[in-house]
Amino acid sequence: LGWMSWERFRCNVDCQADPRNCISEQLFFEMADRLAEDGWRELGYEYINIDDCWAAKQRDAAGQLVPDPKRFPSGIKALADYVHARGLKLGIYGDLGIFTCGGYPGTMLEYVKQDAQTFAAWDVDMLKLDGCYSSEEEQAKGYPEMARALNATGRPIVYSCSWPAYQGGLPPKVNYTILAEICNLWRNYDDIQDSWDSVLSIVDWFFTNQDVLQPAAGPGHWNDPDMLIIGNFGLSYEQSRSQMALWTVMAAPLLMSTDLRTISPSAKEILQNRLMIQINQDPLGIQGRRIVKEKSQIEVFLRPLSQSASALVFFSRRTDMPFHYTTSLAKLHFPEDAVYEVQDVFVGKIIGALKTADNFSVVINPSGVVMWYLRPMALPVQPWHVRQQAPG
C-alpha cells in the first residue's frame, strides 16, 4: 500500500511554470507529510514511490545515476531520510534499457549491479523497473540479474517488474513460476489512464485470463493491475468504489496516484475504508475470481479469505438505472447448510445471518458495486476451504 507519482503527475518537470505539481523533492516531501498526518500511514499506506523523470539527463563521471540537481537539490538519500523519519518507505523508478520511458538514463545490463548498489546506498525500499528501450533478450537477462543484484546489497528492497507487460502478459512468453521467484510484484498489462474505459479494459483482461493469473499470485509475489486513480478526474463516485472493490478482490497492491493535498472527502473515505484494506491485505493472499457473468451485465467476484471468510463483489456494467439482482449463496457454490454473518463493506453495517439456501437481492447502481464480507457462523463438517480454494 502506498502512493505513486506517475498517473497523476506524469513527467511534469517544468518547476518554473508549475512548481506545485512538478516532479521534485518538494512534491515528495509534501506527499510524505500527507501520508503521515492524514491517517494513511496507520492504515498501511507506507510506500511513497517516485516514478519516471527524477534523474538528471546524464550519469555522472563515475557512471552513477544522479537526481536532477535543480529539482532534487537535497539528493535521494535526504529524501529517504525524510520519508523514514515519518515512519514511511521510499520507492524509486528505473528502466532496463538505454533510456527510461520518459527519456532519462536507463539501466543497461552493464549498469545493473552499480544501480542496485546506488539505490541501496540511498536507503531506497522499493524499485519499479520498467522495460522501455530494451529487447526481449535484454529483459530475459536483466530482470533476474537485477533481483540478484538487489539481494546482494543486503538491503531489503521490494522489486516491482514490468517484464510481463512487455511480453504480452501471458504464457508461453511469460513464465509465472519463474517470475514469482524473481519479482515481488509485476505489471502484466497496459498503464492505467484516468478513465473508466481504462479501468474496465484492465478488469476485462485480468478476469478473462484469470485461470492463468490467479494461481500466480500469493504472499510475496503479486499481479499488479496498476495504480488506483480514485480522487482524480476520470471516475464518478460509483466507479471509484468499483475500482477499490475490484482491486481488493484481485489482491492487488493498492498504490494511489492522486493529489493527497486536495483529495475530496468522498474519495478519501473510499481509500481509507478499514474493512476493505483488511480484506485486501488478507494473510492467505489468494487472488479472487469472477464466478458469474450474467446476460443482464451483472458480474459476481469472489475472494476466499482466512478463517473460512469470503469477500463477494456484485458489479454492474449497466449504464441505465439501479438493478435488483437476486441470487443465493448456493448458486454461488458456497457449501450447503452453512450460515454466514454478512457485512456490507462500504456501509460497514452487519446485514445479519444468511443461510446458503436463502435467496437474497442486492441493488447495484450503474457502473457500481455492492461488496460483502462473509464470516461463517456455522459451517458443515468438511471445511469449504479444504475442499476447494475458490469456487467456480
Walk me through what this model shows.
GO terms for molecular function: alpha-galactosidase activity; alpha-N-acetylgalactosaminidase activity. InterPro entries: Aldolase_TIM (IPR013785), GH (IPR017853), Glyco_hydro_27 (IPR002241), Glyco_hydro_27/36_CS (IPR000111), Glyco_hydro_b (IPR013780), Melibiase/NAGA_C (IPR035373). Its main location: other. The chain is of the alpha/beta class and 392 residues long. It folds into 2 domains: 2-281, TIM Barrel (Alpha-Beta Barrel), CATH 3.20.20.70; 289-376, Immunoglobulin-like (Sandwich), CATH 2.60.40. 29% of the residues lie in helices and 21% in strands. Strands 7-6-5-4-3-2-1-8 form an 8-stranded parallel sheet. A 6-stranded antiparallel sheet has the order 9-10-11-16-13-14, with helices on one face. Strand 9 and strand 10 form a beta hairpin. Helix 10 (237-249) packs parallel to helix 12. It is globular and about 70 Å long. The chain starts with a strand and ends in a 5-residue tail after the last helix. Mean pLDDT is 96; it is low at 386-392.
